[in-house]
Specification:
Blueprint (H helix, E strand, L loop, with lengths): L5 H18 L18 H9 L1 E7 L5 E7 L2 E7 L11 E4 L3 H11 L7 H8 L14 H5 L5 E6 L9 H11 L10 H13 L6 H8 L4 H13 L4 H10 L6 H12 L5 H10 L3 H11 L11 H16 L12 H27 L5
Helix pairs in contact: 1-3, 1-4, 2-3, 6-7, 6-8, 7-15, 8-9, 9-15, 12-14, 13-14, 13-15
């Protein structure tokens, strides 16, 4: 982020407030006058002007996160999700300041949540043209925007280098009023996959799944995460017979583009499941294959076929397939089992699949 003065950054914020009030039919007087938030300290002013922004992630119009750093400290501003019930390891809530607020607002382009009249009441009569004005109180401005939480991140935790992972872990910890009803156990697994899963997990899929308006949407995003690795068992066998340093991803692309080869989905999924130990397989067997008859010898092929049947019932709109009808408890068990599978297969195959080609 370019070095800018606190007045310049504040102007962006107040221009947004004035425009939002105008859209609501409320005119803010003296818009040509400068407005700013009261200064806290030299250190905070330096943070405001010099912080380096590394990334941001938006998941709704008002929910997003910004990753920025200053003086070797890593920060995350998380907007719109409210206070988490518990904070993931590696993140420490810290006080909101004029500097961190300004970085969060100017880098996220989040819109005010206040009505036009509330904005008028907060900033209408005070500005740089009024004698004695020395800036607005921080609290007077923060209440005009969605909730903003600031965290300092421990850089010894790998996941804190990725804004999607941080936002995902925090969203899972604050998921209280979503459209579906994951159990606390399942939400803990969601948070855990963001915190300690392989860096190669497609975290955007997991986050999108958690925020779906249906259980089926969550399932499909987790299925897609597994689907990316369907070629791995066959490629591993190929590489044993025909050694190469190419990443599996490149091999899969070459085989598809030159030979039109792609793995058969249910067969590929069965091979992936067959590689897992029973701590991963048993929940899949129980939740997808109706392990209620005491048969613990249900084969990986049967489990894969049952998972694939759910996938087809959600993806295709054909009478012969029917619709996927499950209770909340049944869906929760299925999602929980799929989360375990995603974490396990990326732990084992993620790095090899995504290995960078040698120069």
């Amino acid at each position: 982020m370019a070095n800018r003065s606190r007045i310049q950054m504040s102007q962006q914020i107040f221009e947004r407030l004035i425009a939002h009030a105008s859209d609501d039919g409320v005119v803010i007087p003296d818009t040509g006058q400068k407005r700013w938030i009261s200064r806290l300290s030299d250190a905070d002013a330096s943070l405001m002007a010099e912080a380096e922004v590394f990334g941001d992630q938006q998941i709704t119009r008002q929910i997003r996160a910004v990753h920025f750093e200053h003086d070797a400290v890593r920060y995350f501003a998380v907007l719109g999700i409210g206070e988490a019930e518990s904070v993931p390891d590696g993140l420490v809530p810290t006080e909101l300041t004029p500097g961190t607020l300004s970085v969060a607002l100017t880098q996220s382009d989040i819109q005010p949540s206040a009505k036009g009249l509330e904005i008028l009441e907060a900033i209408g009569d005070l500005h740089g043209g009024v004698e004695g004005f020395d800036g607005y109180e921080l609290s007077a401005i923060t209440k005009l925007f969605p909730s903003i939480e600031i965290f300092e991140a421990d850089q010894n935790y790998e996941y804190t280098a990725n804004v999607v992972r941080v936002l995902g872990a925090l969203t899972a910890r604050s998921y209280a009023d979503g459209p579906i009803a994951p159990s606390s156990t399942t939400l803990n697994k969601v948070s855990d996959i963001f915190q300690s899963g392989s860096e190669h997990v497609p975290f955007e899929n997991v986050l999108q799944g958690m925020l779906s308006i249906s259980w089926g949407g969550f399932f499909l995003e987790l299925y897609r995460a597994i689907e990316q690795l369907y070629a791995v068992p066959r490629l591993a066998a190929l590489v044993e017979a025909w050694p190469t340093s190419l990443p599996y991803r490149n091999l899969a692309d070459l085989l598809e583009s030159h030979l039109a080869w792609r793995p058969k989905e249910d067969d590929a999924l069965a091979k992936i499941i067959a590689e897992c130990d029973d701590t991963i397989v048993a929940p899949l067997r129980e939740s997808f294959s109706g392990h209620r008859d005491g048969d613990q010898e249900i084969a990986a092929e049967k489990i894969a076929a049952d998972i694939y049947k759910v996938r087809n019932g959600l993806v295709h709109f054909r009478a012969a397939l029917g619709t996927v009808q499950r209770t909340d408890e049944e869906w929760d068990d299925m999602i929980s089992a799929m989360l375990d599978l995603v974490k396990d297969v990326y732990r084992r195959h993620g790095a090899r699949f995504n290995l960078e080609p040698e120069a």
